[in-house]
Write a structure and sequence with these properties.
This protein is α/β, with parallel strands linked by helices. Helix content is 56%, strand content 12%. The protein has a domain of 315 residues: Rossmann fold (3-Layer(aba) Sandwich), CATH 3.40.50.300. It is built from 16 helices and 16 strands. The chain has a 6-stranded antiparallel β-sheet with strand order 2-1-4-5-6-7.
């Protein structure tokens, strides 16, 4: 990130319900907000935090009292050299997710994305824990990064309090410029595809195992005693087909022998055989005719239902016409007694030859025409109804005739079956029982062949899974090449050294100002693809070695190191820092006598030519005689 892609707060304004607005003017470089406790320093910083995309409502962000007193907060900022005006309102009717950017309403999510885009910080997704785990990769958004730029008054115990280690690590990689290489789009796709390969392989193994167990129970074939394979299924198919062929040959032999034994009786039974053939042909003919008649009866039923429905509609039409005719005879004698326009009574002319309203003469032919037309319509509709009744009668007669014919054929078929029954029984008695056993065995073997075919089709799913795995592996190989190329740009040692050197530079500076300030060994920073470790000396974790005051020095050194990254074109820190110092450290010591010398290294850093557009905002009790900083004093203590 270049110096042009930094963030500077120029002015903060908050609008109360009544009275003038409150204003806080800031400058590039170091700004110190000083005043005793409860003068509102932290509230200003919390409102700034709210402007930078807090998801909470105003009451949750900086307290109900201020949310009731004020209606909006606005910041004039410079983002990567461009002037922005950011405003959030919480008056009645404004959603808490609404942000007004340069007067234009947008939602918080889009606003945060636009902020990252303007600062040229890539929007990435990172793994939480094992990259190949089931959890999806969350977005490394602006709010996660801002936790490393804004040190709240009550959160001075961790690199970023209440932030998981994986998220802290991702933020540090983002600031050092490594995240875009380690958490690249190609790497995310590679992980997803490798997870898919693992899933498909497990699915394939489970499928084959279940199929083998089921196949053994269904087929009972010796060829699949260990596991089902296409070759074992083919061997089982050939063996069963051979058994079917053998049984079919045995059956044919039995029938041939039986036929030869009966040939001697054939001459004496020629007439009986001819009679049986005639009965069989007649039975087949009668059954065919019966089927045709049954179809004809169904067609007759459908047609009769249609005609009956049509006849019913005609009957209803006749009834409507008769009602109209009766109504006409009743209403014919009604006269107009009032004007249809003004509703005043109309004087009737004594003459009956003309209309007293329009004064035109009556036409006897026309007065009877409507009545005659209605009577003609009734007669025509009745004629159509009569035709419908005739059609219904014809169809009902056809139905009765078809029913009688079906009954006759059914009787004849039953008679022929009675005549054939003794012959069938005799034939069954003549056939040897071995044929029935053979037929049963052949049927069982055919069922086994069908089962083998089903298993074979199911086994083809394994081939489809293998093809999917091969396709994904081919895509994975290309992604691995790209990820390997990007991995060549991952210099964890350089990034760790940059943070380590800057932190120790800061600690050297405060030790020079106060020789008893830092009493431990130098800080060591170790970064790899999985985590970032801050050590005191070589092997000791910082959080287990440092007390309250030293923890404060260590954490400020971390922020100093992040600020140093701003000068590196490859890094993504926007040169902006907010430090809200606690009134008292966890060990009970006061911060007031330490404020100046812990901030002085930032003053000197931001005065150099490498940091002309960076900004630090620090809130504390005194900052007495701190040269080079823009000093803003608060004096009114709020109860």
């Amino acid at each position: 990130m270049s110096q042009s892609h930094t963030l500077i707060i120029n002015e903060l304004l908050r609008q109360p319900e009544r009275g003038p607005e409150d204003r806080l003017s800031l400058e590039p470089g170091v700004n110190v907000i000083v005043g005793p406790p409860n003068t509102g320093k932290s509230k200003w910083l919390q409102m700034l935090d709210y402007l930078f995309g807090d998801d909470d409502d105003a009451s949750g962000a900086f307290g109900e009292d201020l949310a009731n007193k004020y209606t909006s907060v606005l910041a004039r900022v410079t983002v990567a050299g461009e002037a922005w005006e950011i405003e959030r309102r919480w008056d009645e009717g404004t959603p808490k997710s609404r942000v007004f950017l340069n007067g234009e309403a947008t939602n918080v999510k889009d606003y945060r994305h636009r902020l990252l885009s303007q600062l040229e910080i890539p929007i990435l997704h990172y793994p939480q824990g094992n990259p190949y785990g089931q959890r999806t990769w969350p977005e490394l958004g602006w709010r996660s990064l801002y936790r490393h730029m804004y040190r709240q008054q009550l959160l001075w115990s961790d690199i970023a309090d209440k932030q998981p280690e994986s998220e802290q690590h991702a933020c540090i990689l983002q600031f050092t410029g490594l995240a875009k290489h380690l958490f690249s789009k190609e790497y995310g796709e590679l992980v997803e595809k490798e997870k898919k390969i693992i899933e498909l392989k497990a699915q394939k193994e489970q499928f084959v195992s279940v199929l083998s167990d089921v196949s053994k129970e269904l087929l009972s074939a010796e060829e699949i005693g260990v596991g089902v394979t296409p070759q074992s299924l083919e061997a089982a198919r050939q063996r069963i087909q051979g058994q079917i062929d053998g049984l079919s040959q045995d059956r044919q032999t039995l029938i041939t022998n039986l036929t030869q034994g009966l040939l001697g009786q054939a001459d004496n039974e020629v007439d009986s055989a001819n009679k049986l053939d005639e009965l069989a042909e007649k039975l087949a003919s009668l059954e065919g005719k019966l089927e045709e008649l049954q179809l004809a009866r169904e067609r007759n039923r459908i047609r009769l239902a249609e005609i009956q429905e049509y006849r019913s509609s005609i009957e209803q039409e006749v009834e409507r016409l008769l009602r109209a005719q009766k109504a006409g005879s009743v209403l014919a004698d009604l006269k107009v007694t009032h004007c249809p326009v003004c509703d005043r009574p109309v004087a009737q002319d004594s003459s009956d030859a003309s209309c007293f309203l329009c004064h035109r003469p009556f036409d006897a032919a026309s007065s009877q025409g409507s009545v005659q037309r209605l009577e003609m319509e009734v007669e025509q509709t009745r004629a159509v109804l009569a035709e419908g009744n005739e059609m219904v009668a014809v169809l009902e007669k056809d139905r009765e005739r078809i029913g009688e014919r079906i009954a006759e054929l059914d009787m004849q078929i039953r008679e022929i079956r009675v005549l054939l029954q003794p012959v069938r029984s005799a034939a069954a008695a003549v056939l040897p029982p071995e044929i029935a056993v053979i037929d049963r065995n052949i049927g069982q073997l055919h069922e086994q062949l069908l089962q083998i075919e089903r298993v074979s089709r199911s086994l083809s799913l394994r081939e489809r899974l293998s093809e999917q795995i091969d396709e994904i592996q081919a895509e994975t190989a290309k992604l691995e090449q790209e990820v390997a190329r990007q991995g060549g740009e991952l210099d964890f040692e350089r990034a760790g050294d940059a943070l380590e050197d800057a932190m120790n530079t800061y600690l050297n500076a405060i030790k020079q100002a106060s020789p008893t300030s830092w009493t431990h060994k130098p800080v060591r920073v170790r970064i790899d693809e999985k985590r970032t470790r801050f050590l005191i000396g070589e092997q000791k974790k910082w959080s287990t070695q440092l007390g309250g005051t030293l923890t404060l020095y260590f954490l400020i050194a971390y922020h100093y190191a992040l600020m140093n990254l701003t000068k590196d074109e490859q890094c993504n820190f926007p040169g902006f820092l907010v430090l809200d110092f606690p009134a008292e450290l966890p060990d009970g010591s006061s911060i007031q006598d330490k404020e100046n010398f812990v901030i002085e290294p930032f003053v000197k850093l931001l005065e150099t030519e490498n940091f002309p557009k960076c900004q630090v905002i620090a809130a504390g009790n005194a900052f007495e005689s701190l040269a080079g900083a823009n000093r803003i004093e608060f004096s009114k203590v709020w109860s």
